[in-house]
Amino acid sequence: MALTVVGSIAFDSVRTPFGERDRMLGGSAVHFSLAASFFTEVRVVGPVGDDFGADELGVLETRGVITDDIERVAGGETFFWRGHYDFDLNVAHTDDTQLNVFADFDPKLSGEARRAQILFLGNIQPALQQRVRGRCREAEFTALDSMNLWIETERESLVAAIGDVDCVLLNDAEIRELTEQPNLARAARALMAMGPRVVVAKRGEYGAALFSGDEFFAIPGYLLEDVRDPTGAGDSFAGGFLGYLDGRRGAGDNVFDHTVLRQAMAYGSVLASFNVEDFGTERVRSLTREQIEERLRDFRRITHFEVEPITM
Length: 312
Ligand code: AMP
Fold this sequence. Notes:
By secondary structure, the chain is α/β, with parallel strands linked by helices. The protein has 11 helices and 13 strands.
């Protein structure tokens, strides 16, 4: 059974100190799907407009992503995001967000999409995330990502959506902002008190921290000398993380086990590191599983960290 993801399917215009791109394929669900597709079958849910062409769809389909649950809205325009980064690539500055077809989207969700065992609610309106969560009753492990825009404009519905999932992945600054706790340990506890058993605090180039039950683990980012565009790093991390978890679940392992979650963090870091090497989806779309395993081996050598392999 494929993993289901809902989130933005977008056109992104992005400027970084290393270049710029206009209306390239992006969106939380797209970055997530491409990363997760190396480990498991992925089904993506979301609307697109008339401007979303065969080339964009082809990027997903070439990676084997199931696109049957993408709804084309006649006369509509695809979600659009414009942002830029200064020399601190850990901070994205949003210049424009146009929800377009997402504004009144009510997902139909095929039977297959509803039966997913692993569900990722990628960054999009929290009310929509919660609606999709409510329709996927069989999911064993559900995870959610969000951002400062929704914390600031839709806080109540975001807290409600968080209450319905097992795991939240957010930037450390967003966890502090949401919980109004300056200390990350306290902020993660406060977030877990809203419902989720697992919290992943993403820390940009510095890696990510895992809180599950009483346990804590931190993993560095894979050190890179050339980073061109960090857009989608968080979603690629989530794709590596949940894709690996789905693989372990398929092998009969308990995905709530702290050791399994720690190992999933390593795949998250590796996928995020590939994503930032080029603009948008350019690097991940040409990636191979062999390149992922090679970088993972290097990452394990540097960090002295053991990861159990999964086969696809
Ligand atoms: P990240 O992984 O956090 O860098 O997310 C990058 C992606 O988030 C971009 O490809 C954007 O299209 C998408 N995005 C930006 N703002 C929003 C928003 N308000 N809702 C949903 N997706 C967004």
